[in-house]
Amino acid sequence: MSEPVQENVPQSLDDILAGDVDGLLDAPQKPKKVTSSDRLERAFLEIVEFRREHERVPSSTTREIAERKLGARLDGILANDEKIEALKHLDEFGLLDAPEPPGSLDDLLEGDAIDDLLGDDSGVLDVSELPATRKPESPDSVAKRVKAEDFEQFEHLFKAKHAELAEGTLQLATFTGLHMIREGAFFVLGGVLCFVAEVGEDVDLVVGGKPKQKQRLRVVFENGTESRMYKQSLMTRLYEQHGQVLARTGVDASEVLDADVESGHIYVLQSLSDDPAISGLPDLHKIGFSTTTVEQRIKNAEKSP
After folding, report:
1. What's the domain of life for this entry (predicted)?
2. What angle (nearest 5°) sits at the alpha carbon of residue 200, between those of residues 146 and 239?
3. What is the overall mean pLDDT for the chain?
4. Which stretches within the chain are classed as H helix?
5. Which residues pair with 16 in a beta bridge?
6. Which of 3, 196, 263, 305 is at 20 to 30 A from 270, Cα to Cα?
7. Overall average pLDDT of the 290-304 stretch
8. How many other C-beta atoms are found inside a 10 Å radius of the C-beta of residue 77?
9. Could you tell me if 175 and 239 are in contact, meaning their C-beta atoms sit under 8 angstroms apart?
10. What is this structure's pTM?
11. Helix and strand tally (H, E) in the chain?
12. Distances (CA, A) of 123 to 85, 100, 104
């Protein structure tokens, strides 16, 4: 009878570790932490690889996204002396070398640098498809404020409007469009009250290469000046300066825009007389006009039925 085979059973932890010839019990090596320097070197090596493959430096202005990204990265590195110093040991193509300055103006003009400076591969400087530049209007068509020689004809209107504003019969409303600009309208432009005294006939003009009709205005200002601006020009200035329009209180600003000065009252009255000849006419009314108040006009009505 054969003797039993005796197996080598480890008797201790040291025996187990000593018997691990395949390194199964070795602690796994921790991955090396990636530092900012590692990332910088890896990014620069991509630029080096591009230079090796294409035999040129990547451009930061090309429309090719991948190359443009590398070109912009290289521009950023070249703008930082610390990064240049940290990457010199990887620069096998001299990508980080500072270019030598030209010895003269002729050297500068003959070199490639001037072509790079003035080159426009992206087409940014191509203006061939842009619309034609609008020429400014001639001096004759641009209105200027001048002294209103007949200002005395309008001065009382401005005083009346200020009084009505103070009384509350007039109010300032928001300017809402070209339809409000017509003869007889009052506006506040830049804090100054102005009056549209005249609206001229339509004039055919060419604006921006397109035919347009415009109307000249005569706009009188309360400071004694006037302007012959176009209707559209007044609209633009009112919008730009948050201008306002004068309107009767309680009435929409687009309905009543006039230069009238209140001079009296129109009244409609029914008689309270006991005279049968008058009281027997139920639809009898008196319509009249008074420069005074209605109450003052009828205070002696009982004496003259």
Report:
1. Bacteria
2. 70
3. 78
4. 13-18, 36-54, 65-78, 81-87, 105-110, 112-118, 152-167, 231-240, 276-279, 294-297
5. none
6. 263
7. 70
8. 20
9. yes
10. 0.41
11. 10, 9
12. 35, 29, 30
Q: 59 Cβ partners below 8 Å, 6+ apart?
A: 67, 68, 71, 121
User: Burial, 87: exposed, middle or buried (Cβ in 10 Å; 0-12, 13-18, 19+)?
Assistant: buried
CA proximity to 186, closest of 160, 167, 216, 152: 160
Give me the pLDDT at residue 239, please.
92
The pair of three-digit structure tokens given for residue 233, joined into one six-digit string: 């020009």
pLDDT digits (tens, 9 = 90+) for 56-74: 999 988 888 999 999 999 9
Structure tokens at 58: 């990547």
φ and ψ of 276, to 5 deg: -55, -30
134 forms beta bridges with none
Higher local confidence (pLDDT), 120 or 16: 16
Angle, to 10 degrees, between the axis of helix 65-78 and the axis of helix 36-54?
Answer: 120
Q: Considering just the CA atoms, what is the radius of gyration of the chain in Å?
A: 46
CA dist., res. 115 & res. 135, Å (int): 33
Local structure of 270: helix, strand or coil: coil
Do β-strands 225-227 and 170-174 pair in parallel, antiparallel, or remain unpaired?
unpaired
pLDDT of residue 287: 80
Residues in the chain: 305
Interacting residues of 86 by C-beta distance below 8 A, sequence separation 6+: 37, 40, 41
Nearest Cα neighbor of 247 from 239, 234, 258, 236 is 258
Domain ranges of the chain: 38-90, 142-248, 265-303
pLDDT score at 256: 46
Cβ pair 186, 195 in contact under 8 A: yes
Taking CA atoms, 116 is separated from 54, 56, 89, 99, 175, in Å, by 19, 14, 28, 14, 54
Band (pLDDT 50/70/90 cuts) for residue 139 is very low
**Token pair of 37 as six digits:** 């320097």
